[in-house]
Every structure is written in C-alpha cells, then in structure tokens.
Request: fold
Amino acid sequence: MPIKNYTTKVPVVRTIKEIQESLIKHGVLGILMEYEKGTGRIEALKFLIEVKGNKVPFRLPTDWRKFQEVLKQQGVKRWNDDDYCYRVAWRVVRDWVMAQMALFEINQVELPQIFLPYMTDLNGVSTLYERVLKSGFKFLGDGNK
Reply:
C-alpha cells in the first residue's frame, strides 16, 4: 500500500503555511525558508526556539527526491512527476509536525525535544543528527560512565 498522503492535491504553499502557523503558535521565534538551488522549491524550514534564554537554530529538511524513490518502489504511478513528489513529501512532513505538536500540547515533550535531531550549529549547516552520524554514534561518549 502506498504511503500516507499519496493522493493529496494540497498545494505545497498551503502545507508550508500550515507548518509555519503551527510552529509560530507553539513558540518559535522566527522561520526562514531555504530553497533548493535551481528549482525554487523549498528544501528546508529553518527556525529558532528559545532554550534557557538562548536562541537555538533548527533545520527541518524535506528531501523530496529520496521520497520520489520510495514512491517508485511502492509502485505509485506518478512517482516520476517531480511536482507531485515534492507536494506529497511536504504533506507527510506536515503530518509529522502536527503529531509532534499534539504531544507538546499534552505536556509529553518539550518543543526543543521534538526537533532535537534537527538542531544545527550556529551556522545553520550541520544538524545534531548529522554530527552524531559522522561520529559513528559516539558523539556522547562510549557509554562506559
């Protein structure tokens, strides 16, 4: 069975707006759209969350080309339609954000906790997940203490 939202007709601009509105409602300090070179497509949302008085940067990416491969493997007929794949990929991210915000609203998680893997260095380039991956998952030490 194909992935959730594979039939969506919701335009990406509406999906992005819904994500932004949710982030703003839940306390982010600012949002920036990062565009894919040469296509004008949004490849990530960058935003700031206040953590203990500090503005901490986050980068929430959507790699729609990887998603396109998933649709191809699932036999979705429109897998080769770039606009379609881009639209569906962002819709899936939107659903994830909304589910995470629901957990935040019932006090199960804190806002920075939701997006922790997407926290970036001060340059906004490398995410925490990418740094941990690069370290061979030894970023926090060897676990002996």
